[in-house]
Fold each of these.
Amino acid sequence: MTTTTDVATPPTGPAAFFAALLRMLFRKPGRGTAFVWSGVGLILILTAIGPEIGPALSGVGCGCGWGSEEIDRGHALEGPSASHFFGTDRTGFDIFSRVLSSPRINLVIALVATALSVVIGLPLGLLAGYVGGRTRAATALSEVIMRCMDVLQSFPLFVFAIVLVAVIGQSAEIVIIALTIVNLPVFARLARAEMLTVREQPYADAARILGHGNFRLIFRHLAPNSIASSVATVPMVIGFVILFTASLSFVGAGVKPPQAELGGMIRVGANNMVTGEWWPSVFPGIALGLFVLIFAFAAQDIAVRMRSVKRAEGLMSADTTSA
Amino acid sequence: MNPAASILKPFVALFSSPFIQRRLLFFIPQLFIITIITFILLKLVPGDIVDVLLGGLSTEVQREGLREDLGLNDSVFSQYFTYIEGLVQGDLGRSFFTGQTVAEDFKDRLPATLELITIALGVSLLIMIPLGIRAGSPKQTGWAAKFDKGLSKVVTFYGLLAGSLADFWLALILIFIFYATANIVPEPGGYFALGNEPNATTGFHLLDSIINGDGAALKSYLGHMLLPVATLVFVYGGPILKMTITSMAEIQNSAYVENARGMGFKTGTIRRIQFRNSLPPIITIIGVIYGFLLGGAVLVERIFSLNGFGNYGVESVLQNDFLAAQSFMLVAAIWVMLVYLVVDILHAALDPRIRL
Amino acid sequence: MLEIKNLTVGVPDDSGIGFEAMLDDISLSVDAGQSVGVVGEAGSGKSLLVHAIGGLLRAPVVPFGGEVLFEGRDMISMSADDRRLILGEELSLVLPGGRVRLNPLEKVGRQIMRVQRDHHDELSKVEAHQRAVQLLDRVGIPDPELRAEAYPHELSGGMAQRTVVAMALANSPRFLVADEPTTGIDVTIQRQILEDFASLIREDNVGLLIVTRDLGIVAHFCDRVAVVSEGRIVENAEVREFFKEQKHPVSRELMRATVLEREKAAEWSAAAASD
């Protein structure tokens, strides 16, 4: 045995994987990243306590606080002022307070829907990627899974969500279901693609030779290494779901007032735009854009970190040609 | 080789590829699955359809009569077959809201929406692709380099924005700026100002105004389309731009482009190679967007009061106009499948490796 | 013919004034009809030298000093337009990698034609095609007319590499810079290509600069050898002298590694023969 091939030694097993994950997350914070992640943190805080602090914060200027569903009679459709930082809409709601409360709905829906998509779609993708090509029956199974994903994806998202709402009824839960179904194929595809590369790695062969013929055992080694691209996509999907929820509400098929949801707020204020009262729609829209943007940045940041980690720990398919 | 053969040859090569054949083969079953899903969805509606259709007060005789008419007493399978039979004959049901058959409703609305999204897509391509080409292969030296650096910053910023902005919100902002404040555009509402509609020869408004030589209609149409198209281009052109840049940059760093430079190829040649090799992912994303927009333009349609296809679908859903909603979903899904099929054919035409 | 004078190439460091050198004060010359081998460990910078000659350095790597004179003209400082007239026409590069150097979307024959027609506007498609087939034949590809219509993924690795060589030879260049032209190829084809180069050198007075890790190639086909280590030339000698005695420790290491390989090879073939 004179030749020694450089076999990449990636983290194996869930414990090692999470260690690597944590290491990646806390690696060299750049200048922009602090910004992004504090943005995420702020959104999470608002999700937790937004509706509660609304009254307190909105009253800073005048000593009068407004809850997100409180109506200020007689002061409907007024522009931004000391007593209403973002003005009021045509019903009399304080927009500032509602904007602060909106993350709770938008984000909870987004988080749950994304989590469900991952929990269902990822294993399916891993399965399809691992068994495909081994035996006839297994390949057939893998093909069937992926074709189902194709069909799911060929239904235009919006149409699909709307129809689900029509069929089952309008509520936050339905929105979650619709969005879960719609994002499933995304994670399934990513997981499958990565699994296809990972299973050809030398360390996979090594594990097999060592007697890890047990599927479950291989899942403990291969699976943790196949989820990188999916993890990187999560924040992007969250951002997309937030936007989608708002779109549904705007159309009237999502969350309804008086619940404070950004899309619904924009809907309520839409007609006022034409007549020049811009604040009921503009502020929620800006907030919406900011939330999605922050998650987009977060996704970018994770992607960059993942790439540097993969390179350092040789997780990418080994490019064995030397310089 | 005679001219006819030389024109046919690439097509023959294309369609004799196993990949394309497999793809076409899958098309029919996929169509069927879509019909099955749309069929099932209707069956999932809770409560009795008959009650909803007839309204509150109705006799049992009426109800039974309607049930017989709708075939609800037959088995699920025969109901499905009746459904398919109807589809093949072009029967898409009848809308309670409009009173017409759904097919007629589609005839009224589909062409206009198709036109809108095609125009929007066309404009996006005209703007985003050259922009992306330029930004994706920046000049390294010289005065052009400074311009490219600035361009790259602007483009990156735009890319992030385009993915985060809600299209309906942007539409509102545009209306506010260009109509409410500056009054440059006509009042948003419909495709034309009242009385300016051309004869509906084809149903495609732009074409109709041109065919009929109706200058006033053309002007009115373009004026009304300005903001909707601008909104769509801004929001949905973003991903196209991003993909063009990414793809071009990746190809620019490829081994064969480097080799081409080392072999002294002309700059024009290299640029052509770069572009052609960058195309596949760009085509994919264009297809995804185009397929999505038929139903997805609904938000923009609603804001500008354009009586479009997506709007029809959403309305029928909100009004519980079941048959209309069902057919809407069917047509939307078929459209997406057609677009994806064309995308795959284009891929095979471009890349010989795929044809295997 | 090719004179490299004090070439320094590197990456600017954080201060903005200084730089980290990747090629340091390289000086080397190759005459017409001469073949010089450049050897060194992986990462020593020998490929970078080839890139520098061809103007293929990619940011942030930049030339910081020195010249590369081809028949008196400096390849480093000339404009891209001027350089492209020389590359592929008077001085050709053969870059490593084989198939990845070919455009996957275009037929192989067209690519060879392109090298010709981008340098000679007056060539007709028919003429270029004929020559392309000739070139494929010359580099030892069987059924050249058929192969010319093939796409790169339809060729074997060896055929693809030979196609790249064909592209380089298309316009009968006077100088060749070859970077690992034979790594990863069948030994018999290796020999074929190298002998083709050798005959070009002998008969057409072509100059050759060949970068390789294989001292065997240097021994058989080169007149001089330059040893590169960490961006510097540590030894530059006539081949006969070099193989008699190496002056620099790095050169000696290289020799030892090569000799070890050959000894092993001899040992194994002896073992196999005795079974």
Note: The mean pLDDT of chain A is 73.
Amino acid sequence: MSKALTSIETIADDICGDLGDSTSRFKFSILRKLLAGWRDMMLYMGNEGICIKTAVLNVDNVVELPEDFVYEMKVGIKRNGHIAVLSLNDAVEKQLLSQEDTEKTVCDIWNGGFFGSEYIFYNYDWNGSLGELYGWGGVLNCNGYYNIDRQKGEIYIGSLVPDDAEIVIEYQSSGQKDGLTLVPTEWWAALKYYALSEWYASKNLNLAQYNRLAYEREYNKTKRLYNWRSSLFIANKMAESYRSSVH
Amino acid sequence: MVQGVAIDLVLLRVNGGKLTDDGNVQRDDIRAYIPIACNLVTSKAYYVNRQQEGDRDFPSSFYGTYNCAISQSNGVATIVFPKTVVPLPSNQGIRYLIDNCGNTYTPLNDSEVPMINYYKTQFPNIRFYRRTGMVAQLWNVSPLANNVNAVIMIDPENFADTDELPIQAGMEQEFLDIIVQHFTGQRQQPADADVDSKDVNVVP
């Protein structure tokens, strides 16, 4: 499974765009079908599931990442009740500001003087209840603020981060899936055809069948991708088998 | 086409090419009929576009953006549209809603509303709305959002004579013909004052 995740909403918007649905009036119907397709693929693809969590960590020179951390989705720095979003996962378009503009914008965000795109940190565990945190930015240059060592599970905090700030990190957890609607990007085509097949089922049988066949083709392609082994791996296995039989 | 120009063109036609003050068809009469003709050609253009190109869009130039405050009274998030939205088929009068946090809202139809309590937890990051009359109810509203920009097409009844009518290019002639046809055959001039058995102003 690739690390890049895509929101089911993005796939729904993609389908609505293809259908010429500028007012998104088919979107909810498409979303429901995508969710059904996602469950179908989760059941039969043998995927371990995806869980996204958000943690708030106190600033120190070196900050320990949560034990269930796999990789980060979004990183932000919280101060005065405002979160400046420094990095986003690859599925979100971003355009970086210069270092100088970043420092100014981060201060604006912390002082409540910045109004731009809002980013959500999902599944923040606050006193046992799951909620969301909201941050601004997404165009900020993270150089000088932090560096993550995934091997050691640590974040190194740069000198630009004040002591009274907190690090907010949304990350993929190794825990159980929680129903959050993010899917691996390689599922995009299969899910799209599944939703279109279901959507056309009561409207146009030919298109429903066409999309069903396309779904099965994409499903098999994705499954092959997951099950793929290089010829060297297979040759190695054969050699191992031969050696064990000789000895 | 500006509404005032459309009225003048119709007046010219029904009066035989001459603008007159004492005609029986007045500007207000034509103004009252404009929304009917306007909605007819707008809907027709939609189906023509859809048949020819598979395009479901109305031209975006016909939509205006209006800022609406989010009300949280009774625990239900709602907005009130500032003007009447044109009741086009499939709720096309509302192009989209976007709040001050940059979130767009997905429309629900009546059959989908009962499911929303389940699906709003399945899609915690997706916003929904349902329009009823002048009000739209919102679900999954961000706690930071306090107003919504509604991109809507206004009902032509609200238009002034200087406003551009939402008529797709190429449909203007049909629009004028519909109005002219409605007023043709109506008496154009008052009865003549001669006391005889003939009325020279009557339409043959």
Note: The radius of gyration of chain A is 22 Å.
